[in-house]
Amino acid sequence: MSLPDCIKKVTSPVRSLITLVIMAVAVAGCTVQPLYSGGSTGEIGAGVTPDMRSKLASVSIEPANDIFQQAVRNRLIFLLGGGAGEPQYPAYKLRMGLNKTTVSAVTVDVGDKTDRTGRPSAGSVRAFSDYVLLDNQGKPVARGKRTVFASFDRPRQEFANLRAERDAQKRAAEELAEQIFLSLAQDLSKL
């Protein structure tokens, strides 16, 4: 039996239903678009509507206390303002509590007859943020928590080990800022 004979055996109502379902899926796929998509450039926030962009650009961020917080703050300022910096007259203020910890993920016996048995060979940076978005009157309009992890290898050389940990902290700060940005965009879309 050939393929056309199989199709002919399907009754007309069933064939019509299958055609209708395929067309509905095709039409639905054409109209659905992620709200905060990166557009064709793949950048975070590139496909945001102008109204949402103006809301995001009206958020100011409280000053940072350490290098990690400053890295998150700088990335957020860039994402929120589209590279234009902080707003002169902000409509919202973002207050963040940031924390990071570094843990050893794996320990191995290096087997080189030294007392360095159980030396960590991999690490992980955990970055955590607890944020509150305040309006002009200081009333909270949104709250959220975000956590990210960034893994890294721990080589035997001390400088390479420190550099790998610092790079992981930088990756964690940037990823945390991007997650907070997307969360703020979601929160502001509800206002």
UniProtKB/TrEMBL annotation:
> Where would you find the membrane-spanning parts of this chain?
17-36
Mention any Pfam family matching this sequence. Answer: LptE
Gene Ontology biological process: Gram-negative-bacterium-type cell outer membrane assembly
Q: Which UniProt keywords apply?
A: Lipoprotein, Membrane, Transmembrane, Transmembrane helix
Any one GO CC term of the record: outer membrane
Q: What protein name applies here? A: LPS-assembly lipoprotein
